[in-house]
Specification:
The protein contains six helices and twelve strands. The chain has 300 residues and is an alpha+beta fold. The protein folds into three domains: 79 residues, 2-Layer Sandwich (Alpha-Beta Plaits), CATH 3.30.70.330; 73 residues, 2-Layer Sandwich (Alpha-Beta Plaits), CATH 3.30.70; 119 residues, no CATH class. The strands form three sheets. The protein has a five-stranded antiparallel β-sheet. It has a five-stranded antiparallel β-sheet with strand order 7-8-6-10-9, with helices on both faces. A two-stranded antiparallel ribbon has the order 11-12. It is elongated. This is (northern house mosquito) hypothetical protein.
Length: 300
Amino acid sequence: MEPRKEFTLRIHFGVGSRKPKDAEIFQFFRNQGWTSSDLSAMYREDHSLYVRFKSAKGMGEAFSRLGPKTTFSYSDGTAADVTVADAGGVSKYVRIFGLPPEVEDDRIKEVLEKYGNVQQLNRERYGAETGFSIWSGVRGVFMEVIDAIPAQVRIQGLNARIYYEGLSDKCFVCGSKDHLKANCKYRGKVLENPTNSSKETSSFTSVLVECLTPSQPDKPLSGGSRVEDKQQVTPKLAYTNEGPPSYPSDKKPFRFEKGKLIIDEEFAKYWDDRDELILEKRAAAAKILQDKQRQDGRSE
């Protein structure tokens, strides 16, 4: 079994890039501010350069500054685009787009900890060569990704876009790996004739469970109401904290009346203009209701 490379960054040169000389590598180290007190080893394998740091903290800080892609400059004035990754294959550098500086790091950590172990957060800056070494609006998170992170997450009421090496093309509306959520034909629609009911039922149930408060029902829903943690969702859908601040807490945005799904128009109108997530909630609830009605029809 190959030993895991600890505290080591892998800098990969693409096909066609010239392999750097030792002097060029050490100059790259100097440009990053690395010294011999920070590093314990440097070696090559094929088209990759491996840099071993003396501590996980040192590697994390270096990874945060470099990001997943950077430029390697040669002594003759040419340059090559290189990719940077944790050589141990555990930690990844997750980049977050679409958040203003006012969003605190703790709020980001709180959300991303659902998907793995957060080790360090970083606010990326424009390069010194621009003359404006200010925040770029991109956050970087050095973390161990255990569960796949969606391409978009909600952080402090804002939609944040996610990118990291290994991010799979997965639609978090219907579960397909052939497209992303933005291109999903079911986005914001009630599914009438699903082509793969088992996969979509599972996916839509997950969306519903994530968005609505689970509780123990008197009569569980039919057609895929069970989830991985063995909780069930009651047909009486509960109000959630995702409602607008002005929305009365004693009202319910979704409810069932005589077997029909009723969506409170005041709640729906507020979110239609502000958050696409409400569309997914509608589709999720409507899909499960359809399954329930079909099941009830077969049992009569």
